[in-house]
Amino acid sequence: MLESRLGPLDIETVVSGYLRYSRRPRDDDDAYDYDHPDTIADDAVRNAIVSAPAPVVWELVRTLLRQVEDDELSFHAAGPLEDLVALRGAELVDEIEAEARQDARFRWALGCIWLSYGALPDAVLERAVRASGGQIKPLPPRTERRNLPSKRET
Questions:
Q1: How far is 63 from 12, CA to CA, in rounded Å?
Q2: What is the pTM of this model?
Q3: Which of 32, 40, 56, 70 stands the most exposed, by the fewest C-beta atoms within 10 Å?
Q4: DSSP alpha helices (H): ranges in 2-151?
């Protein structure tokens, strides 16, 4: 179960609402209705990644990635999966590695995320890169990126 503004919700309900929310046209006025169940599900995913127990977050993101269409996978990899790895990777690196070994689709999705040096302990970052088959290309730490020339300056 995940906590939401409506109280506890099961993972399947949250994933279904989150996916409906993510598929809505951006000009749909209801898409941003604070009290709409799909908006609440979107909030529940974001909040769970930050604060839910690691096993619950892991099950949530795995369930979500298994339910998305192939043409949506990179979008959701760059959202919930990237947030999961960046924020909870140290807790879940064993699960991430095991899933990547067993599931080529998950490994491909893992390769779509962006991580920065310094965002995770070095050993965890290295394990995530290996789990992605080397597709994750870590970015310099944020402080170093601020000092890089902009595209206009090069």
A1: 8
A2: 0.84
A3: 70
A4: 11-23, 37-51, 54-67, 73-76, 82-102, 104-110, 122-131, 142-146
Note whether residue 87 is domain-resident.
yes
| Range of the structural domain that residue 131 is part of | 11-146
One digit per residue, the tens of pLDDT, for the chain of length 154 reads: 666 665 667 899 999 999 999 888 777 666 567 788 888 889 999 999 999 999 999 999 999 999 999 999 999 999 999 999 999 999 999 999 999 999 999 999 999 999 999 989 999 999 999 999 999 999 998 765 455 555 455 4
Number of domains in the chain: 1
Per DSSP, what are the bridge partners of residue 2? 9
Would 152 be classed as within a structural domain? no
Q: Residue 137: what residue type? A: K
Residue 41, number of CB atoms within 10 A of its CB: 24
Cβ atoms within 10 Å, residue 49: 21
- Look at the chain and count its residues: 154
